[in-house]
Amino acid sequence: EPFVADEYIERLAWRTPGGGSRGGEAFDPKRLLEEFVNHIQELQVMDERIQRKVEKLEQQCQKEAKEFAKKVQELQKSNQVAFQHFQELDEHISYVATKVCHLGDQLEGVNTPRQRAVEAQKLMKYFNEFLDGELKSDVFTNSEKIKEAADIIQKLHLIAQELPFDSLMDFCCYPFSSPGKYHDLECQLIQEFTSAQRRGEISRMREVAAVLLHFKVKPEGFNPQYMNKQVGEVFSNPETVLAKLIQNIFEVKLQSYVKDQLEEHRKSDAEQYLKNLYDLYTRTTNLSSKLMEFNLGTDKQTFLSKLIKSIFISYLENYIEVEIGYLKSRSAMILQRYYDSKNHQKRSIGTGGIQDLKERIRQRTNLPLGPSIDTHGETFLSQEVVVNLLQETKQAFERCHRLSDPSDLPKNAFRIFSMLVDFLCTEHIDYALETGLAGIPSSDSKNANLYFLDVVHQANTIFHLFDKQFNDHLMPLISSSPKLSECLQKKKDIIEQMEVKLDMGIDTLNCMIGQMKHILAAEQKKTDFKPEDENNVLIQYTNACVKVCGYVRKQVEKIRNSMDGKNVDTVLMELGVRFHRLIYEHLQQYSYSCMGGMLAICDVAEYRKCAKDFKIALVLQLFDTLHALCNLLVVAPDNLKQVCSGEQLANLDKNILHSFVQLRVDYRSARLARHFS
User: Fold this and answer.
1) Which of 449, 469, 583, 597 could be disulfide-bonded to 634 (CB atoms 3.0-4.6 Å)?
2) pLDDT tens across 27-79, in order?
């Protein structure tokens, strides 16, 4: 334990009699002092004794250190001597080894020619047996020594290949000639390998495989394994063997099968040829993906890709030309079959560009696009045709994705897209729009059928399908290439061209207004608003109003079903404004008695209900104002100024207000003129 002086003194005082208050003893300082002095003397004696002992130990330690240092020096000298002896021994061993190697080389130089001479003698003996036509040696007659026989036959085969041609022909004439025996033995080895494989004898397979490794020719039917595990167990270089097997399957079996399947339809049936090419290429690439699981060496991806390319290169080089040619003929056939089913002969359509169409819209000439034709209610748009064209193009995109080189994929996809635009958008949709425009009747036609809206409805539905295919199947193929902007621009041009032609269909609204005029002219009577008996009016609104409203509601519903988005509001606003103008001008043609004015207000109220179906604020506002104007037909003369200054009429031109007041039968009365002046 660590020494603590205070505790030591406390213990000493406690043990000394009279040194404390223990047991009631009186404290005796003299005795305690005496005890301390004695104890100090004892400690001094002990210190001197310990110091002498320390000095003695230090002297002994110094002596032993000197002896140890001397001993270490002696050991170092001995080690140096031993190291010198070891170097001398190593040099001597190296010298002896050199002599032994030189002697071995001399012995080998003597023994190798001797062994070769012995081997040559044996081969000459076997060669003579073949020349004599009688195989006597045990190595040829004993089936268990097939390995030794194979080695001999292999060497004789190499010798036979070095013989002159004439000698070789003479040599081959013997029934047991070396080349013949070579192939016979090779077939026996292959058969033995196959039998061992069926029996599951891995060691025998390994033994026969080692012998077959020296034979150069591998027959077509040679299939050294069925399982990857067996290859690793049988062959010393399983990666090379397995790669060679796969190469043999691809270049012989698979290539022959692909050629048979494709060449049969290559020139006679493009559709079947493309289907077979896509199917075979897909199955081959799937096979390649599964083969990636096996150990075929370091760069197996490149190895398998080269094998696939070697099989399909001649078919993939001109794939897109075959695809485009087939797609063109197939699309043309689909369209022609449809028009034939309708007994319709396609007419030539205008070739003007978008700017020409815009100019015709701007001028609002309302001239037909060509000779007016009667479509008999036929839109010349077919969902079946569209589905067939889109399906053909979808399959073409799928084949293009699989069969095109990555660098050519965007370009090829754009060519397919262009074919779809030509046949679906131009030859089908655009033709139907042109035909529909040409079939729009003039505004003064009676009982005109407005089939153009049906064309618009179907064209709108079809274009949604076209747009879906654009996004789903074309975009993934071109999204990261410069062809993306080109495709988007082409699509934009098509949309703009169709919208321009749809705008030209605004002439349909003229026909609608024309039909309303015919209804009003045929059904509206002058006596409706100036009845002979003011007290015997039993109707709420006129028959002309009922028929016009019924006709308008049908057209509004038809427009909503035919269009979508902002186009609906745009067309309905245009129709609503024209509808209001028609009613406004129609009402200006009659004179109104008090009861006739009330009936006109009822008619306008009904027209206003019909205007609510438009769901266009401007149209409803126009009819609200017209309804307010009709109030001028029945209001008392004293209240005219007050009504004209109302909220709905205050901002109108005074001439408009005056024109409605003039329609009253009592307008010429002095009282009315005075109040309105």
Assistant:
1) 597
2) 778 888 888 899 899 989 999 999 999 999 999 999 999 999 999 999 999 99
pLDDT at residue number 133: 61
534 and 657 belong to one structural domain = yes
Domain boundary among 216, 236, 256: 236
Cβ neighbours for 436, distance < 8 A, ≥ 6 positions apart: 375, 379, 380, 451, 452, 455, 456, 505
CA atoms within 13 A on the CB side of 383: 5
Q: H-helix or E-strand containing 336?
A: helix 319-341
Backbone angles phi, psi at 196, to 5 degrees: -65, -35
CB neighbour list of residue 174: distance below 8 Å, 6 or more residues apart? 130, 131, 133
Please say which residue of 219, 236, 253 terminates a domain.
236
Sign of CA dihedral 655, 656, 659, 660: negative
Please give the structure tokens belonging to residue 383: 């969902």
Helix (H/G/I), strand (E/B), else coil: 161? helix
* Six-digit token string for 26: 């009186």
Q: Distance (Å, rounded) from C-alpha 192 to C-alpha 463?
A: 69
The answer to whether the beta carbons of residues 136 and 127 sit under 8 Å apart is no
The answer to whether 519 and 551 have CB atoms below 8 angstroms apart is yes
Same domain, 127 and 157: no
494 vs 474: CA distance, rounded Å: 16
Q: Taking the CB of residue 319, how many other CB atoms lie within 10 A of it?
A: 23
Helix, strand, coil percent values for the chain (each to nearest 5): 75, 0, 25
Is 183 among the domain residues?
yes
CB distance 555 to 573 below 8 Å? no
Q: What is residue 230's predicted lDDT score, i.e. its pLDDT?
A: 61
The pLDDT score that the predictor gives to residue 334 is: 94
Look at residue 671 and tell me if it is in a domain. yes
d(CA 396, CA 477): 12
Distance CA 298, CA 663 (A): 100
| Cβ partners under 8 Å of residue 136, min gap 6 | 129
Q: How far is CA 1 from CA 4, 8, 407, in A?
A: 9, 12, 89
- How far apart CA 252 and CA 248 sit, in angstroms, is 6
| pLDDT beneath 50, residues of the chain | 23, 168-169, 171-178, 217-224, 226-227, 351-355, 357-372, 670
Show the tokens assigned to 356: 């020409």
> Are 638 and 666 within 8 A, CB to CB?
no
Structure tokens at 671: 């009282």
148 plus 101 within the same structural domain: no
- Could you give the CA distance from residue 66 to residue 71 in angstroms, rounded to a whole number? 9
Contacts of 203 (CB under 8 A, 6+ apart): none
Question: String of b and e for 124-157 (b: at least 16 CB within 10 Å)?
Answer: eebbeebeeeeeeeebbeeeeebeebbebbbbbb
d(CA 424, CA 387): 10
What are the tens digits of pLDDT across the range 373-388?
Answer: 555 667 788 889 999 9
Same domain, 231 and 147: yes
3-class DSSP string for 631-648: HHHCCCHHHHHHHHCCCC
| Cα–Cα dist 219/193, whole Å | 13
Cβ within 8 Å of residue 179, ≥6 positions away: 157, 160, 171, 172
Number of residues that make up the chain: 677
Regarding whether 583 and 553 lie in a shared domain, the answer is yes
DSSP code for 528: G
Cα(first)–Cα(last) distance of the chain, in Å? 134
Q: Domain span at residue 105? A: 7-132
Domain annotation covers residue 23: yes
Cα 181 versus chain centre, distance: 59
Same domain, 64 and 107: yes
Residue 172's pLDDT is 46
